[in-house]
Amino acid sequence: QVQLVQSGAEVKQPGASVTVSCKASGYAFRTYDINWVRQAPGQGLEWMGWVSPDSGNTGYAQKFQGRVTMTRSTSTNTAYMEVTSLRSDDTAVYYCARGLIILGAADAFDIWGQGTLVTVSS
Amino acid sequence: DVQMTQSPSSLSASVGDRVTITCRSSQVISTYLAWYQQKPGKVPKLLIYSASTLQSGVPTRFSGSGSGTDFTLTISSLQPEDVGTYYCQNHNSAPLSFGGGTKVEIK
């Protein structure tokens, strides 16, 4: 079945970096963009950016420019998101989500990974 | 950037009630508005996109309407399994953005 499977929970110190992976299966990986969305404890959803598995092109929310890098491997059907210079307010569940192809529009997200909890604490 | 504002932030209704959630965008986004349901401790689920297109497998008691800047999600007959938080999302163009959420409870 169509699914996105993310890497496991991480605990990091402030200032460190973290990389979360998102492995796709059950569909043509190159066809659909992968977006990343985070959710701080008890808070709402926050869109971070996207990566095109086909071209490798990316787009980031301005808030994360320079601190977040999204990449992909077409050989393993996996998308990656690296966040550097971690702060305590980066503590959140990070989701990858597949972009539904909608003519003339940007992505809605039809398939979500299970989420990866990243805890930033000294 | 487009800001999304949902109301109410929470509501409590009885089983069988008709429930309406509204979402307003700070700029015109045509009909490029999606709705998600997030049950407690679970992953968000796409309910509706392009304002009114029901995602495959979603019960028909859910419906969406609106265009421009004002949008509505309606649950025609609230069921116990509909408890959770509902988010709207602008999918007109990047940067994408979500509303703050509406928590739905059973009275």
Oligomer: heterodimer
Question: Using DSSP, what is the number of strands of chain A?
Answer: 11
**Biggest sheet architecture of chain A:** 7 strands, mixed
* Computed Rg of chain B: 13 Å
Count helical runs of chain B: 0
**Largest sheet composition of chain B:** 7 strands, mixed
By helix and strand content of chain A, what is the structural category?
A: mainly beta
The number of E-state strands of chain B comes to: 11
The pLDDT mean of chain A sits at 96
Tell me what portion of residues of chain A adopts beta-strand conformation: over 45%
Q: Work out the strand percent of chain B.
A: over 45%
Largest interface in this structure: A-B, 24 and 26 residues
Description:
- In chain A, a hairpin with a 6-residue loop joins strand 5 and strand 6.
- The model of chain A has no long low-confidence stretch (mean pLDDT 96).
- Helices cover 0% and strands 50% of the residues of chain A.
- Chain A is mostly beta strands.
- In chain A, strands 2, 4, 5, 6, 9, 10 and 11 form a 7-stranded mixed β-sheet that branches. In chain A, strands 1-3-8-7 form a 4-stranded antiparallel β-sheet, with no helix packed on it.
- Chain A has strands spanning 3-6, 10-12, 18-25, 34-39, 46-51, 58-60, 68-73, 78-83, 92-100, 108-112, 116-120.
- Chain A is built from no helices and 11 strands.
- By secondary structure, chain B is mostly beta strands.
- In chain B, the strands form 2 sheets. In chain B, strands 2, 4, 5, 6, 9, 10 and 11 form a 7-stranded mixed β-sheet that branches. In chain B, strands 1-3-8-7 form a 4-stranded antiparallel β-sheet, with no helix packed on it.
- In chain B, strand 5 (45-49) and strand 6 form a beta hairpin.
- Chain B is globular.
- Classes of the chains: A mainly beta (122), B mainly beta (107).
